[in-house]
Amino acid sequence: MAGSWTAALAELGIELPQVAAPVAAYVPAKRVGDQVWTSGQLPLIDGTLPATGKVGSEVNAEDAYTYARQAALNALAAVDALVGLDNVTRISKVVGFVASDPAFTGQPAVINGASDLMKEVFGEAGEHARSAVGVAVLPLDAPVEVELVVEVAEGAEGRR
Length: 160
Fold this sequence. Notes:
By secondary structure, this protein is α+β, with helices and mostly antiparallel strands. Helix content is 29%, strand content 22%. It has helices spanning 5-11, 61-83, 107-122, and strands at 29-32, 35-38, 88-99, 129-135, 144-152. Strands 1-2-5-3-4 form a five-stranded mixed sheet, covered by helices on one side. It starts with a helix and ends in an 8-residue tail after the last strand. The mean pLDDT is 95.
């Protein structure tokens, strides 16, 4: 069942950002049946990356956790713009990519930034399957990128 997730965000003192403009040829989110799939979202804040580089060398893991949280917030903004956040019934999957120094193996702890946000906002409906993948480089030299797959209420019309 859908909840008042916008109220949950407000209670947490979290404001959804504007949807980040795509940096290539794609849309920020796409509805397929009762699911919304987001494109990979970077931790952009007002169109700017707060940091660039590899986690484990140029970016520390604690900051990368915060960036994963921001990227997830950007993904939620894309969902909200497409169907309205209050139409979400559950978070099904979080996929996180971490631009990693070759010796860095803490990708799961970094992507916890996204996962913890889902639990804070959605409670039990925020429990999800997840992948946390280390990669050589991400677009714009971002340290993290996050994708979401969410389930939406049947018959939810969404936004236009």
